[in-house]
Every structure is written in structure tokens, then in C-alpha cells.
Amino acid sequence: MNCSYSPLTTALKRMKRSGSVSRPAVGKSAASIYSVARSKKQQKKDARKAEKAEKAAQRQQQRQTAAAAAEEGPFAANYGDVPVEDVQSKAVSGRSWTKVGDLDEGAAGRAVLVRGAAQAIRPVSKKMAFVVLRQSMSTVQCVLVASADASVSMQMVKFATALSKESIVDVEGVVSLPKEPLKATTQQVEIQLRKIYCVNRATPTLPINLEDAARSEAEFEKAEQVGEKLVRVGQDTRLNYRAIDPRTPSNQAVFRIQCQVGNKFGEYLLSKDFVGIHTPKLIAGSSEGGAAVFKLLYNGQPACLAQSPQLYKQMAICGGFERVFEVGPVFRAENSNTHRHLCEFVGLDAEMEIKEHYFEVCDIIDGLFVSIFKHLTTNCKKELETINGQYPFEPLKYLEKTLKLTYEEGIQMLKEAGTEIEPMGDLNTEAEKKLGRLVREKYGTDFFHFVPLSCGCTSVLHHAML
Amino acid sequence: MNCSYSPLTTALKRMKRSGSVSRPAVGKSAASIYSVARSKKQQKKDARKAEKAEKAAQRQQQRQTAAAAAEEGPFAANYGDVPVEDVQSKAVSGRSWTKVGDLDEGAAGRAVLVRGAAQAIRPVSKKMAFVVLRQSMSTVQCVLVASADASVSMQMVKFATALSKESIVDVEGVVSLPKEPLKATTQQVEIQLRKIYCVNRATPTLPINLEDAARSEAEFEKAEQVGEKLVRVGQDTRLNYRAIDPRTPSNQAVFRIQCQVGNKFGEYLLSKDFVGIHTPKLIAGSSEGGAAVFKLLYNGQPACLAQSPQLYKQMAICGGFERVFEVGPVFRAENSNTHRHLCEFVGLDAEMEIKEHYFEVCDIIDGLFVSIFKHLTTNCKKELETINGQYPFEPLKYLEKTLKLTYEEGIQMLKEAGTEIEPMGDLNTEAEKKLGRLVREKYGTDFFHFVPLSCGCTSVLHHAML
Fold first, then answer.
1. What ipTM does this complex have?
2. Contact present, A102 and A114 (Cβ < 8 Å)
3. Chain B contact for A235, CB < 8 A?
């Protein structure tokens, strides 16, 4: 077991040093967080640029600290940079931290301590400023008003407004209810700040503005209609700064849903007496034949990366496991640029003994998918809404008892809709999509089995939506 | 998503064809089911041998079927080979199957239908035989007595006793309670057989006898004392026939416990707001430096297999995930033959933000391990007992609140026990083991944190037992 960790500061600094991910992943990876390769020249250029920016930021910070010291008021201890010692395992303060996502109306009047990223900083006057703090998908508005009662000085307001966006900030304050609903934050409360400290300053000019990165198409269109031109963050920029892009609420939600899918997959199969296994990825031959295999040397001996756990799953069944599953990477050296070809992806794979009929497998798959759908609908509401905010989608339709559509019926439906298919031929992508739409209209489901009516074949199993 | 399956018959046949695993995995793999490479020559030889044996078995079977047909009695339909059509998805019979592990005293008097592997076949007379059926870690004794009342003929007894060991068998019968406790089976009931069918015959001479493979050292010693010499199944044979060896109860238990450890690892961390992620395994540079990296070409571009998800975990923390974990393969091209060096293993990895002190991580690790220990003790009793039966071990000792042993105290304990350690030096394996024993004696735990007393270092974290 390898349980490792590193303080946030170190990781952030490392990112800042290199300008972005220093050792990027190779190529097309489905479930990867960082998956882009850039030219070394570009990397060096970026690194130099980042270094310059960092030095400028340091100078700026020193100037500010000096200025603050000069003007220091009676509340000087209520703001400033957190001494490095405080985040370096020197002492346990025993303070308790509140999560941004937990800040609801019930917290009103309570004193809280929160650490988050300063997503937005809005100076109103010399005496007043707003700071929006973010944690994962949640944001909260912090209000800073200079007043002796609140122990807040004008220097403190100045300190806050000079912070760079995305800096890591600790705040202390009292939760209050705003007079009007807040539009710019997820949490419907404010924190009236008493103290604000910076744990780690971000580079003043970030390669990605998170507000830009989180915008939906609708927002772009709306702006265009009133003649406003908003900044778009392109795919390349997102991938080049892959440690920043996942901070957008919809990316946070996507990864969380992905995790829940894998988790529910295992949970359901475990409840059906499956055993989770891990099969080798470094093997002596190709798993499925074909040329699409990554080859390498294993101590001088030719070896391949597994294209599938297929053989090992079958051998596990022979080995007496009855039902097995695996969640793990699969490698395919396919040189095709389509949405359906990936060189590395995470496979959710299962294998089971059949007693008599492959419908036994269909039943497990039905139960599995329906349980995943239900779990997401019930437990990932916030995540689904967050994604829908940036990338609108229609809610998934599924039946409690999954529809088994016979091949003949499917072909007939396509025929009636004007699409001719060769009898017993494979459906092409277009026909598949069309059938999906027809089934949704007729049966009210996006998920169904497409099965041969009266044939002993156990390998045809088709889903409209995977 | 890739949900594939194959009927047991196909998988068994494939195994029989090739004599063993046809495309074995490469080298040393910790969590792999099949992880051995054999010479091609040996493989071919084995394949020829297996083919011969199979042909002989087929001839034998044909002779038997012919003989049975000749002598056929009034109960001929109650035994025989299952027609291939019955396991080829032609029809759903709707019959319900009972699991061997569920056969307890409460089932007495009930008619049951069971499918299992014929682990042992013991002819008593022409009129009577015993067949022991196995499913995973459970075995049950089936009794076959020729009598018109039970619709059992002598031909049926003959059919059963002629079955080859490890054949897949369907039986129907009535559960009864034996007069004396059964020693050879896990289930304390018998099935009085009415029907017996063979789904798939195993090769008559198997490379591994499961009773030999499941024996403990104590049994070997006991036999030796009375001058008996029992067959030992060597490691090479086990690895060469990796689809048979996992059928032993202790191997079944090991894989099930391994699955539960990974499962509980994820479950506990999810409950502590961790997000499960999957990081790329095919990357552009080494993860941790050093030469121990597998290199390959990715579309003509140099690439490496990930030695660790380290950088990606840290980047995920920068990306706003706060706490992440991963269960996935790790690759290290280490040319060292020790128990601590593996070329491919499954890493249970976690990364989290620290607010102030690395004790925050210690607390998570404490809770994680204690929850895994508790889960195994409570939910894997049968598995632990099964392993203990073949490989005896002392039960794990752990504390509800994990001991934090300071480095100074540990060194002092070793000193008092006569082992001198260089101050602030690393412990060698021997000293580490000794400290583990001393701590178990003094504090009654096998699991503890070994921490520096007053230093800001966040990377020293030591467990006596991993």
C-alpha cells in the first residue's frame, strides 16, 4: 500500500514553477486528468514566462507587505500571509474548518473558519470589498467592510483586494443572510469577514480565467446578441493547463459522477456475488489479436500491454470464481481519430458463468445499469445540475424493467422510418442513433437490450446508449 | 463500457485445448491471477499431451454412453450428459438453483438443484457412491443409492463413478441430515441424489489434484510421521496451470479478501469526501525518476509506463479535488528478486490536502486501516478460517485508536532489546521486524505509526505491517 501526500503549497509551487504540468501524459486518454503532450520548446518558453511572472508577483507582495507594515493599524494581526510554519506540520491548532458546501441558512449567526480559492475579488470602495471563495462545486460570498466594531481596517480591505485570483485563502467571519438572492454564488449566505489570510498566492496572470472556462454556450450567445465579446478558453489551453481546468464546477461534477459510476458498478456486482479482480496489464501476447497492441520489452523479452482482461476473466471463471469484475485500464494502439477509439481507457468489465441462457447476463446488466441510473439521479443531483448549467442535456429516460428489443422489431422500426438495413447486417452509427431516437419516442427509454429473437448466439448484445 | 461473457463450457474447452493458460502473463505480478511465462517448447508439449488425453477421454465417454444405452433401465432419463443445446441460450427453463454454501440444516427435506465441480467421487459398491460437489470455498456430499423408490438405477451409479474429477455436474436431490458430522465437506448436510447430469467433462488426468493442492504443512507432517508420502504440488505446476490452482479454498479466500480490501479502501475514503480518480498509465516521462521504468513507443513517440500516480494525484489536488484516491496498476522495471520488488502491482493510493499538520493524514490512515481490519474480521470470517486451515497465522492485533510511536521511543525499545541503530538512520528490514514484535508485546498491536517527534518533515510515515 502506498499512501502518499503532499501539502497543497508544494504542489501549487511545483505547478507554478513549470508553468503547467511538467511531465504530461501521452495522447488520447479517456479517464485521465492530464493527457496532453507539448513540445519541449513551448514548455521551456512557458516555464520562463511563468518564472518572470512569479518574480514580479513576489516583488509586488514584498511591496504590499512593506506598505501594510508602514500603515499598520490596530487590527494588523487580522490579515496577512500565513507564515509557512503554520502549514508545515509544526503544530496542531485544533481549529475546526467549515466546508463551503455546508454553509446554508441554518448556519446564520455562526462564526466560521473556511479555506478556499479566491475565485473573484471585487473592490467596492476603499472601505468595502467582496471576495468569492470556492471549494469544488460550491462558492460563497465574503463581505469585508472596514469598521472598528468588526475589527476590520482599511488596510485589510486593501490587502484583500490586492490578492491574486485563485490564491488559497483562509477566512474567519460570521454567517449572515443576504437581503436579496445571490446570483454569483452557489451558497445563499454571506460571510461577514473578521479575518483574512493568504496561504498561497497564485500567479497574478493565470493562463485560464475560471469564469471564462465555466461559461455555457447560452451565455456566449446572449453576450453576442448585445454586442459583447466574451473570452473563450480553447481545448488546447485547457489541456495545456490541465491542473487549472478541472477547477470549473462542471469538470468537478464530471469527475465526481465518473467516480460514482465506477463505485456503483462494483457495489452492485458485489451484491450479486461477483468478485473484484485485477488482471495483468503487462502480458506476453496480444489479448484480442489484431495489430492494435502496444509492444515493449520486459527484461529483454517481448511483451504487450493488455487490450482487454478477456482471457484472464475467463480463466478466473474456470478457476472457480463464478462471477468476476474488473475496473482497470485497457490499452489499444489504434491509430484512428474517432470518438470511439481510445489508446487508453478505463474498462468496467464483468464476466459470469451462464447456467442455461445468456438472458442471465442481460438480467444482471439490466439491474446494474438501472441501479447506476437511480444512484446518479438520487445522489448526484447537484453534480448533474452543475453540468447541465454549462452543457445542457435532456434527462436520461429508462424503464424500471429494461426493454428487450428484438433485432427483427428494431429493423422493422427503422424500415418504417425510412431507413433500410441489410437483414442480419450490422447497424452503422447513423442507424444506431436513429433507432435510439425511435425507441425513446415509442418506449420512453434511452437504454434497452437489442437481442436476436431465436438464435443461440451469446455474443450479440447491444445498447443504444453507452 | 465493456460487459462481456462466455459460457463456462467455452472457457473450459479453451483451457483444455491449450493444456493450460495459452497466453500467459509476463513475470512478477502481485495481484494477477495468471502470471507466469513458460517456454514455447514446453507449451507445445503440454498441448500435445492434453490433446491426446482429451481424445482418450472422448473415446472413453463414447464407450460409456454406448454401454449405458445398451443396459438402459427405466430411469435412463435421470442421468447422462447435458445436451449442448441446454447451455447454449436456446431456452430459459425457469428452474431455480441452490448454492452449495447455502445448504445448511434448515434446508433438510427440501428438493434442490445444484451445479458444481465434482471434486471427489467415491464408489462404495455397485449400488452406492458418493460425489463431493464444490462451489468456491464450499463443498457438499451427494449420496447415490440405487433403489426403485428413489428412481436411481445401478447404471446411474456407474455413470456417476465414471465421471472424471473436476467435471461440471448438475444434481437434483433431497437434502438430508447425516447421522455423524461430516469431515470431508464444509456443509453439514447431504444431498440424496435423484438425478445427475454432466455439463462438461474434465480431462481424466488433471495436472493438479485439488486435494493435494489444498493440503496444509501440518497434514504433510502428520502423514510423514505415519510413514505416508503425500503428493506436493510445486509452485511451478501451480503457476503453469493457473486456471486450476485458484480453485483451492484458500486461493478462493485470498482473492475474495483482496477484493474486500480494495472495496473497503474506496468505501472508507468516499465516506471521507475523497474522489476516486483514474490517472494515465501510458505517460511521456518517468513518474518518479530512476531507471526502473518500462519504455515503449506511442505512435513513434517515446513513452513510459507509470511507476506511480504521484504527479497526477498532486495535480488533481491543485485541480480542486481536495482529496483523491486511486486503485490501479503500477509498473516498475526493477530487476531485483526480492519480496519487496514487483514489476506490476495494484496500488491503493491516496492524496489529500493538508490544512496544518500531517497528522491529518495519519488520522485518515488510522481510520482507514482500522475500518479495513474490522471489516475483514467481521465479514470475512469464513475466508480467514479457510486460509488459516492451509496456512496457519496468528490473528491480527490492532488498537481502536492507532498507536503513534515516536522515532526516539522506537530506537530506545530496540536498544533495550540489544539492537543498536544509528541515530536518525533508516531501520533495516531485520530491525523493522524486531520493532514490530516488540511493539506487539508492549502495546498489543501489529499496526502503528512510526513518527518523528518534533520535526516538520511530512514524508516520514512508517507502518510495521503493510
1. 0.85
2. no
3. no
